[in-house]
Each structure stands twice: as C-alpha cells, then as structure tokens.
Design a protein that fits this description.
mainly alpha, six-stranded mixed beta sheet, two-stranded antiparallel sheet, 23 helices, 8 strands, about 60% helix, globular
Length: about 600
C-alpha cells in the first residue's frame, strides 16, 4: 500500500510540475483578450472595488450569466498581487493544474502511476484545454471540479462498504461536484452523478442503498452546490427564471428572451472542434469506448469506473451535438475522461503492437506535410477555417459581415511552420518505433510531440489577445480624458470588457441590450447606463466632450447618424474606432 501511495503521489506531483512548466511562462505578457477575458477580469475588479461579493456586476450592471467562483478567486488574486493580467490568469491556471492532478490521481489508482502521469500528460497536450488553462474564464475550474468529483465518487464506490476511506472519498466527490455548480453550471453537478448512476444501473449488481451517498456529502451538494443560487434569487428578483428557464431551457430551444450575440456551432462543427481540441487522444479514447461496448463491460464490477467515464464522455458530447446551441468549449469537461480512456487503450492495445503506432505515424506525417504547405502559403483559407470554427468573436463578426481583428499571417505563419517541423520530428521517431515494434517508444513520441506543440497554441492565443485587446485604446483614453468628459461604448460591453479595467472610466452603453447584460438592463439601477441613438445625439451636442468607442465599422456605427463634420476620428486599433465630438487636445 505504501509503494502504491508513493507512486500515486509522485504521479500527481509530476503532473503539477508539467502543468506549471507549460502554462506559467509568459502568463501576463499579453493584455486581456476582448471579447473573452476582459469582462471576467472587470467583474472581479468590481467585486474588489465595491466590496459586494454577492451581486456580480459588469460595468456597474447586474451580471447573472455565471456563478461567482471565478470572480471571487480572481478578486482575491487582485487583492494579493495587484491588478495585473497574470494575477487574474492564476485562477484558470490553478484550475488546469488541479484538473491535471485529478486526472493523474484517478489514472494512477485505475491503471498505475506511470499511466496516471501519461493521462495527465494527454490532458495537458490537448490544445483546447491548454489554451483555456491561461484564459480568464471559468472553464478549467469547472473541469477540475468535475474531475475531482468523478475521482472521489468512483474511488469511494469501489471501496469496501464499511471502510472509512469510502466515506471520505464520497464526500470529496460531492464537494468537487458542488464546486462545479459554483464555478459555472449546476449541470456540472447533475451530469456526472447521472453518468455514475447509469453505470451502476447497467451493471444490475449493486442496490441503490449500498451506493447511497453519506449525509455529509448530500449536505455539501445541496448547500455548496445550490446555496448561492438561492441567496442570489432572494437578492435579485428574476434570477432563477433567467438562470433556469431563459439561459438553459429557452437557450437550448433558441427562444431566449434575453439573447446575446453568440453564434452557435453546427453539430458537425462542434464535433470537429471537440475532436481536434483533444487530438490525437480522441482516437484511442473512442476505440476504448468501442472495446468496452464490445465486451459488455458494464456487467463486470471492476469496470464500473470505466463505464462511468465512457458514459460521461459520450453523453456530454452527444448531448451538445444534438442541442441547437453549443459553443467550441462545451466539450472541455470530457477531456480528462478522454485522456484516461486513451491511455488505457494505449496500455492494453498499443504498447505491444504496431497498429496504433502506425496510425499515429500516418497522422503526424500528414499533419507535418499539411502544416508545411499552409505555412508556405498566404494562410487566408487556414485562418478563415480555424477561427470561424473555434473563435466565438470571429463568428459574431461574420454575421454582420465585418472582419474580425486577427493577427497578421506574418505573425501566425511561423507558428504553423514550427508546428510542421515538430510533427515531422515526431513522425520520424514514430517510424523508428513502428519498425522496431516498440509501442512504448511510440506512446512517448506521441506524448512528447503533442507537448512540444502546446507552446505554439498558447503563443497563438497570446497573439490573438494582443491583436484585439482594448487595452491600448483604453490607456490612451485614460491619458486623454478630463474629469468632466463622457465615455460611451457602442454595442455589448463584453466586446470591450476590459475598457473600464484599463481606462478607469465607466462608459455609458449605446445599443447594448442584446448582451450578457440584457436582463441586467431591466433593473432600475441600470436605467442611466443604457443609451439609445437619441441619448448619444443629445450628449454629442451638449457642449461636453464625448468619446465614443465602437467595434463597428463606420458604415454600421451610430456615428453615421451624427451631424456631418461633428465626429472626429481619433484612433483606429485592434478592430475598434475611437471618435470624439471635439477632437484631440493639442499636446505632445
């Protein structure tokens, strides 16, 4: 037992170290991405500034879209380390580290320490997960909480019925799923419980009484998982209707009363993005699910954990594939399970044969050639294809036929060329492993190749953030604006969420009700925040100096309706236009 415990601990420590090596470098080098990170960082800043830790606000308006865990932690990070980008990004990084540790832990218990470390490595070499590992959103916290919840419940159910370890692990599992509800969505609590319950029911071998949760676990699920929602409902009328009905039921039916600007993926796009985000691990994971089905693994009590992981993975991806509304990151909570399933298939089927090595050899060689050809071209088709599927803002801009502010190919092209070289090197090693029938070398080559690609993914994300952040324009406004000047932002504030964060000035919001603040706009305390074209026209001719920030091209902006000659263009940067009714003051 001591040797097993030390091996598990070593796998966890090594997975944490690997996550930090991948995610820490350059954590604060890029400004907050807008839209994306900026609004979440600003919500945390407003918590710290106001001292109100219960009612979340963005631009001073009630924000009801997400529960508070991300914002509490980011506000705490700001209090400890100051209002820097890296401080906010410590929170998603911490989520990624915890998710990797949970994956290593469960893998070590189910397959052995080396396999557990391999599963953590597979998770940390899944590009979509790594990008969100340093992106200020609740995704990695959500993934980590779910994975610790699954690990605790699966290990607890496998322990002897009367042992103390069983109770402890079940409580840990309940705490994890409760935190998932507090991080992003109660479905993170309900979904894993449903997968485990279905795995037990399919086995027909264990009564529900022996599988019941301890009372402490149930209390944690209820109080921690739903307590904040009940308190928020008492403080904010309409909160539960918005959260349960509008943001879930009506959203799934595409009938929302308070829609935002997000453009959902098609089912084919969602499956492609989910698979490529977990490439290449999605392939052996899928083969492992097929193997479990072929052998009717649900009949074997030893396989309960694996059946639950397979149900969770296929159920989550299948649910969103069928749902009318899904975004690129919706499959992320299944990625740790995909990593575990993939490593099991490698261990049982790939280490002793050539087929899996040969498959990856062919894939990596094709990727090397394809990336080289893309890198030698102008990149237009590649950028359009990749960002139109994976980037929410690019999809929103396409709807209004406006170009999304993306980095030039001169910056992205070298990353693609380096990727070609990395996959080419991996293919050469895999060719040697294939010839020598060395499955272990093949697995190591796949893992090392994918880990080597990950800095390119984080580097690309940093380029995107730098190319469309509002930071530069906001800092110019901070220098330019005088105490009596007005600031206005056209369109949903999430498109420039860090505007107040960097400028120190709170804007009025013009034509911004189709937004994550749509329901917040209905409360009386937000009445003066939301403007229409008439409000802008009156302010523009009031004699006060007014600044207008807009991500809309001139022909699509309210600027076109202002009196000719009164709108002075001061700046164009990162997909935004800055106008004033007076013009820039003379100065250095």
């Amino acid at each position: 037992m001591g040797s097993r415990g030390s091996g598990t601990a070593a796998a966890i420590v090594a997975s944490i170290a690997l996550a930090l090596v991948l995610l820490l470098p350059g954590l604060g080098a890029a400004p907050f991405d807008d839209p994306g990170e900026g609004q979440h960082a600003e919500i945390a800043r407003e918590i710290r500034a106001s001292g109100d830790w219960l009612t979340l606000r963005l631009n001073g308006v009630r924000y009801l879209d997400k529960p508070p865990l991300l914002y509490w932690l980011a506000a705490g990070a700001f209090a400890l380390f100051g209002g820097a980008e890296w401080a906010a990004r410590l929170v998603p990084l911490g989520g990624a580290v915890l998710a990797a540790a949970a994956t290593a832990f469960l893998g070590a218990r189910l397959l052995g320490p080396w396999a557990g470390l391999g599963a953590a490595g597979a998770l940390l070499s899944s590009a979509l997960f790594v990008v969100f590992g340093r992106y200020v959103r609740p995704e990695t916290l959500f993934v980590a909480a779910i994975q610790w919840g699954l690990a605790g419940l699966l290990l607890g159910l496998a322990a002897p019925a009367e042992s103390g370890r069983r109770r402890v692990w079940l409580v840990v599992g309940c705490a994890g799923l409760a935190l998932a509800s507090l991080a992003k969505d109660p479905l993170g609590l309900i979904g894993p419980l449903g997968a485990i319950a279905l795995a037990l029911a399919l086995g027909r071998r264990r009564g529900w009484r022996s599988a019941r949760l301890p009372w402490e676990g149930v209390a944690i699920l209820v109080v921690l998982g739903f307590g904040w929602y009940l308190v928020a409902a008492m403080v904010t009328p309409g909160f539960l209707w918005y959260t349960v009905v509008d943001n879930h039921v009506l959203n799934a039916l595409r009938l929302r009363q308070f829609p935002d600007e997000d453009v959902p993926l098609s089912s084919a796009e969602f499956l492609a993005v989910s698979g490529l985000g977990a490439f290449p691990w999605i392939i052996p994971a899928g083969l492992q699910v097929i193997a479990l089905c072929r052998h009717r693994a649900w009949r074997d009590p030893v396989e309960t954990a694996w059946v639950a992981l397979a149900l969770w993975t296929t159920g989550l991806i299948g649910l969103f594939a069928l749902s009318p509304f899904k975004l690129p990151h919706y499959a992320l909570p299944a990625y740790p399970a995909i990593a575990l399933l993939a490593v099991r298939f490698w261990k049982e089927r790939g280490l002793g044969g050539r087929a899996l090595v040969g498959l990856h050899l062919a894939l990596f060689a094709a990727l090397a050639v394809g990336a080289f050809l893309v890198g030698m071209g102008d990149g237009r088709a590649f950028v359009d294809t990749v960002f139109s599927a994976t980037d929410v803002y690019t999809r929103k801009e396409a709807v209004v036929r406006q170009a999304s502010p993306l980095p030039p190919w001169s910056a992205l092209g070298p990353l693609v060329t380096r990727m070609a070289m990395i996959f080419g090197g991996g293919a050469l090693v895999l060719a040697g492993a294939f010839a020598a029938r060395a499955g272990r070398l093949g697995f190591a080559a796949v893992l090392a190749t994918m880990l080597a690609v990950m800095p390119l993914a984080t580097g690309g994300a940093a380029l995107v953030a730098s190319g469309r952040a509002v930071a530069r324009m906001a800092e110019d406004l901070k220098r330019e604006m005088a105490p009596g000047d007005l600031l206005v932002h056209e369109g949903p504030i999430e498109n420039s969420g860090a505007l107040e964060f960097y400028s120190g000035r709170r804007p009025a919001l013009l034509d911004a009700r189709r937004s994550v603040l749509g329901i917040g706009a209905t409360y009386p305390d937000a009445a003066e925040t939301f403007w229409d074209a008439g409000d802008l026209a009156r302010a523009w001719q009031s004699g006060r100096r007014v600044f207008l920030v807009t991500p809309r091209a001139p022909e699509l902006s309210a600027v076109a309706s202002l009196p000719p000659g009164t709108a002075h263009l001061l700046e164009v940067s990162n997909g935004r236009w800055l106008y004033s009714n007076v013009g820039r003051r003379p100065g250095p």
